[in-house]
Request: fold
Amino acid sequence: MAFEYSDKNDEVMCEINMTPLVDVMLVLLIIFMITVPLITNSLNIVLPKAQSYANSSSNSSVRLSIDGVGNYFWNDVLVSDEKLIQLLAIEASLGRQTNIQLFADKDVRYERVAQLMAQVQHAGLTQIGLVTLATQSQFK
Reply:
């Protein structure tokens, strides 16, 4: 086998193959189209900062509690269901806005909580707040 030398192949190729360049550019374009919207936020909003404080108004407040068994407490004093209805009626008849702070044990049946809320609403008191563990420290 002999290799033949030809002068036809000695010419320098002056054209650049554009296909790999176009492929690389399209891949980069797709990458930028996907990542740029994820990096930048389209809407810049400065949110206000606020803290929650216990209500210090002149309205009276009543602490209603329900223990795990379902017993009602009026300002930490054990009351029966009938006595609770009487106390709610007296509080509503005073004509002032009373804030009802409801503390319910995590083990109490939901039925007892719903009954209490219905009794408060039936008495005509409209401001009731459910106190959780995070907000309980504000009321002590």
